[in-house]
What does this fold into?
Amino acid sequence: MDDSYGDIDLSDDPLIEALNEEIIALIKEGEITELSQEDIQNVMDGAVDDLATQTYEQILSDDEGLERYQDTIADSQQNLQERWGEPLELLERLIVWSMESGRALNREYGFEATQSEDYQFHALLRLHARSVQVALEIHHLLKGGFADGAFARWRSLYELAITSSFIVQHSGVTAERFLSYRQIWEYHFAETYQDHQDDLNVEPLDPDILEGLETTRDELVDQFGESIDDNGYGSGWAAEAHSGNGGPSIHSMKEEVGLEHLSPYYKLACEAIHAGSKGTLDRLGIIRHEDIEQPEVLLSGPSNAGLNLPGQLTAISLAQVTNNLLTVHLNSAYLADMKGIQMLVSDIEQGFADVAEELEQDDREATEEWANQDIVDIALNYIDRPDLFSEKFFEEYTDFDSLEEFEDALPVGLDEVKDEGSVVTEADEAIRSHSDFDSFQDLIDTAMEVWVNQNVDLPQFGN
It folds into this structure.
């Protein structure tokens, strides 16, 4: 049976091999004499199921592979800690300081705020608690080497800072609308859930729940006006206090509270979340030097790069939310906290900036060293020769029949070849007489290209 399909060699395809064995076994056992389309489909289904089960069990039993990955991650995090440890610790200190400030305020004023229906305090306290948690999430992502994930989470922290600042600038009614708006959102979510419950194969909502949500929605509209119901888009609570044209949004509110200067970073953080071209091709975890040739990197795990921007922005936005809460009951102690927090934020910004600059320089030097390596040096000193020069390679590209014959024809041993400068002219003559290559360098270039295509998972473009 010919195991080829066009230019694709199927001889190593485990599915084709399994199909061959299954079909041959059925024919020998006399269960089928003629292969119909249905027979082929049944055999195919069984072979796919068997192969899937085999692969699944292999993955579950591959302890060595899992341990190797875990060791790699552990080494990566150790290297990251050695480089970024100081600014990461400063950021953690800021988060703990902010957390303790919120707890102190809640202990001192929480009960009083409940008794007096101080909606502004309760809204800011809850926004602050959420902000601290988001900052902790960002910190864990940064410690793990996931700068893009941390940047994406900072987007949420930035929106919390905008919302907190907006509520600080307006009356308690705005805060009350904010706290009540959740029920408007739940009403519209229930409608969406009901529209798709059959597609999702989930339990339908109890009619009494839907009726209750609708009743609550109507009561809130009666209390606050139609503007609070924005069909669940998320900003109806701010409609009455909003001074801009059109309905309120996070974009219009950031201008009103003076945080629009961070808009460029917010736009970039959105790309870290969405599946667009920019966020896919440009990653914070990859350092690029446009003036230096460098290898293509597809980042699918942690990286030592890019932590500075999300780290700095997290400090800025968390400090903003914390200051907003402290201003509600401002006294000399809280004023000192606010000033001290700002000093720590400055240290964090500088700390991340210094490490980023140092990393950029180290990476530039390493990239320049890589770019200056000759292809011969790479091929003969970092790749085993039996891997680089396969029997198939010699058959297709030269008159040599083996690696041994190739080495015998060269006037210099491959062990002595370290770079292009050590390849003598006689070696080029030997290559020209046994192949269509013009030089030893050309042969190595082709061998390297073949090796990369066979061994490196490169991105595929086109059809």
Q: What stands out?
A: The chain has a mean pLDDT of 88. Residues 63-115 form the longest helix (53 residues). The CA atoms of residues 125 and 325 lie 7 Å apart.
